[in-house]
Amino acid sequence: MAKDQKAKAKKEQIKGKAKEVVGRATGDMRAEAKGRAGQSKGDARQAKEKGKDVFKH
Description:
Residues 1-57 are annotated as: Disordered. It holds the Pfam family CsbD. This is CsbD family protein. Belongs to the UPF0337 (CsbD) family. With 57 residues, the chain is mainly α. 93% of the residues lie in helices and 0% in strands. The protein is built from 2 helices and no strands. The protein has helices at 2-26, 29-56. The protein starts with a helix and ends with a helix.
């Protein structure tokens, strides 16, 4: 289960970065902001999973 969540977090980070880059390139501030939000969501999910790993060992 944890591997699935870690992969999902990484996917969210990558999608967010792509949206941010496209938004910046096209001048679409909304897409850029959504991209940053997606990255933050992925970062939070990844931190949660790392925290779980600490308590497992």
